[in-house]
Amino acid sequence: MKNYENVMVFNHPLINHKVAILRNEKTAMKEFRELIEEITMVMSYEAFKDAPTETVKVKTPLEVCDQKMIMDNSIAIIPILRAGLGMVNGVHNIFPSARVGHIGMYRDEETAIPHEYYCKLPEGIENMTAILLDPMLATGGSACDAITALKNRGVKKIKFMAIIGAPEGLAKVAETHPDVQIYVSTLDRQLNENYYILPGLGDAGDRLFGTK
Q: Which of 23, 27, 33, 107 is catalytic?
């Protein structure tokens, strides 16, 4: 696959270990949900290494010093419904005061074309760094449309994070939105005829919420 400047695929032994458990069809819902959160949290450290900061005065037991802190109201977490909800706590563990918005997208089962049905974003999001979350990056249609929806609402700095990605979807998002930094835990082999990622892990939403 072509190398893209705006794409980072993790190759971390801790993440690889957790993804192996995620893939297992016998992994129960509770453990599956916890693993999604844990992988997201590990990825967030890298994704936000350029988070906006400000210098504040802190009084230690010995003296006053200057210390950098993440700026208030600078981070927005935007899960793509519904599976993206499973990643929210992973980012919130790092940024507990981050605002959360939601974008609802559904995929036509026959054409795989995504459709937006809901969008509720934090006030002032145009001045924040928005991290868009979806565990599965398959065709890239939902991710591209969600990114466009954020841009149309004035968001200037957008990041996208997925747990499992297909080469087809990763290429589509990287080429359609070269200004968006993309973080993918694991890059899989391909999509099948039904647009599912292979080897993948099944339907992330169903496994997160026990709906199948």
A: 107
